[in-house]
Design goal:
Elements: H1 2-16, E1 26-32, E2 37-39, E3 53-59, E4 62-65, E5 76-78, E6 89-91, E7 100-106, E8 111-119, E9 129-135, E10 140-142, E11 157-162, E12 165-170, E13 182-184, E14 195-197, E15 206-213, E16 216-225, H2 227-246, H3 259-286, H4 294-299
Parallel strand pairs: 1-8, 9-16
Antiparallel strand pairs: 2-6, 3-4, 3-7, 5-6, 7-8, 10-14, 11-12, 11-15, 13-14, 15-16
Pfam families: V-set
Main location: membrane
Subcellular location: Cell membrane
Length: 306
């Protein structure tokens, strides 16, 4: 009896096949254009023998098998082929149209759902004009970048407006003058499309275009000056600063009256007052003629009568 039960559970184990983890749940995965992403799917029991399974992509009103669709040719593979129960799907060189609903389904029609979001390149200064100044003989960087620096645009071009027509200078150098002088400023960052131009000449001045798509464009206006113009500008600024400094009015000096002057004035006033009082008293007692105090009247008004 015990042996029969053991055989029953043994047969049940292999008949059920691979039951995927997170069955009935929907996972959300985010990737970036030009990058890679792993859509997870694995058997809950690592000892399970996997029969058949499929990865499907929902398009329109039907499910399309990923491994049979030419859209994914050269871009799809199992994430871990050495582990039979790891059914995770690796998609490389992501594109915007890879975004959507995916389903990992095993033989007994047990499946898990995955929603894949793919973020593309939206330019920081989209539809704007950026002004850049460079100097003849030097290098200059024309700025252009995606809001998501991990997002690699599916298409990119740098163009220069020559004779009222934009011609490509990167990746394809349609203008001979730009050969071996242009390169990406930071090729290790997918979303940084800034262009470096070396050995500048005055002929490089003009309008440039960072083109990702018809909806994603940045315009750059490049001004190229001679090196002496840079020196003249610095000298002019220094002269203006010096001139402004010379025109500043000198600080006002506050003149303070020495304290001893006030003391002398006070003492002198007291002496005069005492003299006046003494003479007035004499006039009253000795009937001194007022003619003797004429000099006093010159300073103070005398109360003596003629």
């Amino acid at each position: 009896m015990k042996d029969c039960l053991y055989l029953f559970f043994f047969m049940l184990h292999f008949s059920t096949g691979c039951i995927v983890s997170d069955v009935g749940q929907t996972m959300v995965i985010t990737g970036y254009t030009g990058g890679s992403v792993v859509l997870p799917c694995s058997c809950a029991d690592p000892q399970t023998t996997v029969g058949t399974f499929t990865w499907g992509y929902h398009q329109g009103n039907k499910w399309i098998q990923v491994f049979q669709d030419e859209k994914y040719r050269g871009r799809r593979m199992l994430f871990n082929e050495l582990s039979p129960t790891n059914l995770s799907l690796l998609i490389s060189d992501l594109r915007k149209n890879d975004q959507g609903y995916y389903k990992c389904m095993t033989e007994p029609k047990i499946f898990t759902d995955v929603i894949l979001n793919v973020k593309g390149c939206d330019l920081v200064d989209n539809r704007r004009t950026v002004v850049v100044t460079g100097y003849s003989g030097a290098s200059v960087v024309l700025p252009c970048s995606c809001t998501e620096l991990l997002a690699k645009p599916e298409h990119k071009q740098w163009k220069y407006n020559k004779e009222n027509q934009f011609k490509e200078i990167y990746l394809n150098e349609e203008i001979e003058n730009y050969k071996n002088r242009v390169k990406l400023f930071d090729p290790n960052t997918p979303g940084n499309l800034s262009l470096q131009i070396s050995a500048l000449t005055t002929e490089d001045r003009g309008y440039y275009q960072c083109f990702v798509s018809s909806q994603q464009i940045v315009f750059v206006s490049l001004h190229v000056l001679h090196p002496e113009e840079k020196t003249s500008t610095i000298s002019l600024s220094t002269h203006q600063l010096s001139h402004q400094t010379q025109e500043l009015p000198p600080p006002r000096q506050t003149q303070h009256t020495p304290q001893y002057v006030f003391i002398l004035v006070a003492v002198f006033s007291v002496i005069l007052l005492l003299a006046f009082l003494a003479l007035s008293s004499r006039c009253g007692k000795e009937e001194v003629p007022c003619s003797d105090v004429v000099y006093v009247e010159t300073i103070y008004t005398s109360s003596c009568t003629e």
